[in-house]
Amino acid sequence: MPRSVNSVAKRARRKKVLKQAKGYFGRRKNVWTVAKNAVDKAMQYSYRDRRNKKRTFRALWITRINAGAREYGLSYSQFMGALKANDIELNRKVLADLAMNNPEAFKAVVEKVK
């Protein structure tokens, strides 16, 4: 009995991967084996970096809060400790936005905790 192959499904799988590889350079965009490896690696990077993005944004917010707090003679850790002691529950994202885009509101927060 001859072997049954499902060419329709096989073609669909390959089309899906080649569509994901659209825009890649050289053979990565149109040669099945190269494109499959490139897409697999890209998916690994995207999974990893969705988590790394959260870390990098938190680091950016901390840097901005630190710069804003130092204008008023406080370090980042002193400022955050004072916020906790005064029961002010603003997260780092909001504080960084205030420090960058709304300095008078950030100053008000600093004066409240001093």
From TrEMBL:
Keywords: Ribonucleoprotein, Ribosomal protein, RNA-binding, rRNA-binding. Coiled coil: none annotated. SUPFAM superfamilies: Ribosomal protein L20 (SSF74731). The keyword Ion transport does not apply. The keyword rRNA-binding applies. GO terms for biological process: ribosomal large subunit assembly; translation. InterPro entries: Ribosomal_bL20, RIBOSOMAL_L20_CS, Ribosomal_protein_bL20_C. It comes from the Bacteria. Signal peptide: none annotated. GO terms for molecular function: rRNA binding; structural constituent of ribosome. One of its GO terms (cellular component) is ribosome. It holds the Pfam family Ribosomal_L20. Belongs to the bacterial ribosomal protein bL20 family. Binds directly to 23S ribosomal RNA and is necessary for the in vitro assembly process of the 50S ribosomal subunit. It is not involved in the protein synthesizing functions of that subunit. This is Large ribosomal subunit protein bL20.
